[in-house]
Amino acid sequence: MTLSHQHRTEDCRAVSDVLSRIGDKWTVLVVEFLGGGPLRFNELRKMIGNISQKMLTTTLRGLERDGFVTRTVYPTIPPRVDYELTDLGRDLLVPVRALGEWARQNAGRINAARAKFDKISEAA
After folding, report:
1. How far apart are CA 31 and CA 89, in angstroms?
2. Strand order in the sheet with 69-74
3. Average pLDDT in the 66-89 region?
4. How many CB atoms neighbour CB 100 within 10 A?
5. What is the model's pTM?
6. pLDDT given at position 6
7. How far is CA 33 from the centre of its chain?
8. pLDDT tens digits for range 3-37
9. Which helix (H) or strand (E) holds 96?
10. Residue 45 gets which letter from DSSP?
11. Cβ distance 63 to 27 under 8 Å?
């Protein structure tokens, strides 16, 4: 990949827009868990852990709006709703999993750097 010195505002906006959707911790977790196949809302909520119902709803709606997730409602009592990655969502799963793996592999190094920085900052 060759980097250009040209700055294209529309490219920056596009990247910023996509990163604002996928750059939060809840989206990454939702995409990772849905990578295993369709899940119901409460299954997904239990797997994630300490996410509120409102935040999960907001995250899923945003992912659905952007075309990463589909929501299927089954006419049962009570209604059953499944969430699943679209083709676009499965494409997103590749870099999300890679970033997640990188974060897990480097968490110790990052924490050590933070501790070193904080120690120096406190001494100053």
Report:
1. 7
2. 39-40, 80-85, 69-74
3. 94
4. 15
5. 0.78
6. 66
7. 10
8. 555 667 777 877 777 777 777 889 999 999 999 99
9. helix 87-123
10. H
11. yes
Where are the domains positioned within the chain? Answer: 9-123
pLDDT class of 124 with cuts at 50, 70, 90: confident
CATH of segment(s) 9-123: 1.10.10.10
DSSP 75: -
What pLDDT is stored for residue 52 in this prediction? 95
Distances (CA, A) of 65 to 60, 70, 102: 8, 9, 28
Beta strands of the chain (E only): which ranges?
39-40, 69-74, 80-85
What amino acid occupies position 26?
W
Number of Cβ atoms within 10 Å of the Cβ of 27: 21
